[in-house]
Amino acid sequence: MNSVEPIREDEDVVAMANYLKERNERDYVMFLVGIYTGLRISDILPLRAADVEKTHLVLFEKKTSKMKRIILHPQLKKVLRDYTMNMKRTQLLFPSRKTGRGKKQKPISRKRAYEILKSASEDLGFEIRIGTHTMRKTFGFRYYQQHKDVAELQEIYNHGSQTETLRYIGVMSERIEQKIYDMDRISGI
């Protein structure tokens, strides 16, 4: 499995959001939930309207089985309020057009979420490796750039070390690349 990258530039984040908003509001909201909460796609897709009614999102993470309580950023909260205005509380935020057994509504699949993001990045001409984890990594990258607190980010992600967190959000590779680029040139070559 190839490692994916965060979207590092704010203008690229905006371009992705605007692209998705023009095509499908569901996909736009999914992207915003990802970049404002840092949740894994497996925790985003099953969300229902009732889950985002309050100031905080409370859930059990699928991967870790740990309870997670996340404040909803005011910008995200406004988008979610508008998006869910005419929804029933039990309605999925990111429904698939396909139904399950007994015509039960299902969320879009992880594969479909990946296809949405991949297609958008290609149409926008992004030159990064993108996937569903790109949203989570974009959240972390932006958090780190604004606050420079890797310990807090490590706590948010439940990572075992700060190095793991820096590597995860692409800061470690960015630092290494810059240091290689800035190395003194070898005279005589």
Q: Hey, roughly how much beta strand do the residues contain?
A: 5-15%
Shape: globular
CATH topology of the domain at 10-94 and 106-136: hpI Integrase, Chain A
Largest sheet: 2 strands, antiparallel
Q: Which architecture of the domain at 10-94 and 106-136 per CATH?
A: Orthogonal Bundle
Text of the CATH class of the domain at 10-94 and 106-136: Mainly Alpha
CATH homologous superfamily designation of the domain at 10-94 and 106-136: Intergrase catalytic core
Gyration radius (Cα, Å) is: 18 Å
Q: Which stretches are poorly predicted, pLDDT < 50 over at least 5 residues?
A: none
**N-C termini distance:** 38 Å
Instruction: Return the structural class.
Output: mainly alpha
What's the count of strands? 4
SSE arrangement:
Blueprint: H1 10-23, H2 25-37, H3 41-44, E1 56-60, E2 67-71, H4 74-84, E3 95-99, E4 105-107, H5 110-124, H6 133-147, H7 150-157, H8 162-168, H9 171-181
Antiparallel strand pairs: 1-2, 3-4
Helix pairs in contact: 1-2, 1-5, 2-4, 2-6, 7-8
Brief digest:
By secondary structure, the chain is mainly alpha-helical.
